[in-house]
Write a structure and sequence with these properties.
By secondary structure, the protein is an alpha/beta fold. It has 7 helices and 7 strands; from the N terminus they run βαβαβαβαβαβααβ. Strand 1, helix 1 and strand 2 form a beta-alpha-beta unit. The structure holds nicotinamide-adenine-dinucleotide. Nicotinamide-adenine-dinucleotide binds next to helix 1, strand 2, helix 4 and strand 5.
Amino acid sequence: MFSLTGRVALVSGAGQSVGEGIAQVLARQGAAVIVNDLHPERAEKVAAGIAEEGHTAIAAAFDVTDYAAVEGRVRAAEAEFGRHVDIVVNNAGVAEERVIKPFRELSPEQWRAPIDLNIYGSMNCIKVALDGMCDAGWGRVVQISSGSARTGQNINQSMYATGKSGVEGFIRHLAAETGQYGITANIVALGHQKNLEDKMSPEMIEQILRTIPIGRLGDPVEVGAFCAYLASDEAGGITGQTLDFNGGSQTR
Ligand SMILES: NC(=O)c1ccc[n+]([C@@H]2O[C@H](COP(=O)([O-])OP(=O)(O)OC[C@H]3O[C@@H](n4cnc5c(N)ncnc54)[C@H](O)[C@@H]3O)[C@@H](O)[C@H]2O)c1
């Protein structure tokens, strides 16, 4: 069950953390994985690690917000694998120039990056794969989002949440439009993940852990396993859903 053998998967922002775990697990389940990242060296390291395990992956460095770059590199990867993209996991969602400030202190120029990345970046990766999926009568889209898309939080990240909310709306419509072609599109709304330990003080992590019923942060391989399930034949009956992956935290 849950085999992805014979499938080609594109995972964006897969050069580290959550995306790395997703790319690893999809490859372990048998998919040939296009490991995307903005930073070539990150993508190459993850693809090399997957190859060392005896699975199939290629590194594909491009900026998901640049449609021409996405299309050019994905077409080249498809030619390399001899098959169209069957599975898109839109994981890239944390903009490089992330600004953490209340809305009141943001200039209009600072609004764009997280919205471009989460909405247009995700749409670009789906758009380049969609005709191939429709023609084949099978496809899977998994959108990585966040609990912040559906809950107001005083965390100075309103533009990030705006991007996540916007893309969630798009995915629901995409699911409704493309179900007739055997395509499913679902949203995985993550809670706090392990890589926050590198970004926050132990005190802040302690505070966060008190809000998570399972008492620990999320693990990239567990997120990968959930994505692999959603990408499998066996999950064909689930579409247009937002599924929380947050250790039981309350998101609304
Ligand atoms: N880490 C968390 O606690 C958490 C919580 C909720 C949701 N999420 C979501 O999970 C996903 C992964 O988060 P993460 O913490 O692993 O992020 P991360 O910043 O550790 O890694 C993301 C990767 O995406 C790449 N990237 C950034 N912009 C890109 C672009 N324009 N094109 C291609 N690649 C790009 C980066 O180079 C980086 O390697 C994001 O969508 C994020 O919003 C994470």
